[in-house]
Amino acid sequence: MQRQRDEFYTHAWQQAAAQIGASSEHLDGGLIEFARKGRTTRAWKNYTTLDDPVTLRLAGNKPLVLSKLEGIAPVSPWKTFKLETIESAHAMLDGSPHVVKPARNTGAGSGITTGVRTRADLRHSVANAAAFDAVLLIEKQIPGANYRLLFLNGELIEIVRRDPPAVVGDGKSSVRQLVAAENEFRRKQGWRRAQTMLSIDNDMRLTLSAVGMTLSSVPQRDQDVVLKTVINENRACENVLVEQMCSEIIATCRECVVSLGIQLAGVDIITPDASVPLSESGGVVLEVNTTPGLYHHFDPDEMKCRVAPAILEAALRPAVSLPRKVVHEKWEVAS
Prior knowledge:
- The protein is α+β, with helices and mostly antiparallel strands.
- Among the domains are: 51-74 and 143-163 and 236-290, ATP-grasp fold, B domain (D-amino Acid Aminotransferase, Chain A, domain 1); 77-141, ATP-grasp fold, A domain (Dna Ligase, domain 1, 2-Layer Sandwich), CATH 3.30.1490.20; 165-233, no CATH class.
- It is built from eleven helices and 16 strands.
- The strands form five sheets. It has a five-stranded antiparallel β-sheet. The protein has a four-stranded antiparallel β-sheet with strand order 4-7-5-6.
- InterPro entries: ATP-grasp.
- Residues 64-316 form the ATP-grasp domain.
- Keywords: ATP-binding, Nucleotide-binding.
- It comes from Blastopirellula marina.
């Protein structure tokens, strides 16, 4: 599906360039260069020139970000650990579900397992996460819907509710067979249906187990079966545009973004009620993502990425520069 993911971003950026009156040229290695009125910028998949490498490095360190957010927004109880200190993670297990993930420099759900309740669950999840980083993170799993708030230069440009991947029973096929059928649809329809294939992993097994099902279970006709708690493998139609949200939630998420100095940020929250502040609902800020994936904002009916034009427009704006006199004075002092 890597090719199909690449095709989605090519479609999104070319369409955005046409909408704002910019030219686009494909460079080697999947890079696309855009030009308009003497300004140029480049993009590679969901990567743009809006945020610098140091900011990306900071945002990729989940424990560091969580520690910075703790004074600003509610976050889930969390702890870092390594293979040799796994006992500290054991101490967090209390029978309620937890999430285990790599602590640094991953995205798109890589290495994440939800529904971790037992020591056996923890061992399996650690084996998955440790393939991506030596430092791991365990946090309490918070019930509620998953929302992505996309901010550009401190302004909210879109909110989507990201529903988990699911299949619908036909009364005769097992969950495993329904997953295979869905993946066949994805192969045929490509990024117009989904950006990735459904993978059968520990997160799927634990999500099914939480409702008394396995891959061999045969759901009833028209029964909705949620396959995963990690939402990154969902379909385009499972990302729902949200028109209203509590203003205090929006303000809290904006403060998180500003405090980290990120220009283009996707703030992920979990809350059972988006009409009240997180502190009232028991919701939390999960992550603040740089280089946020744009597929969550793809409209499969209109065949367009709603946010790509605004992002490209921002990347093509003239950079703020110091007046020539100030630059000259600083150069003289430096010399």
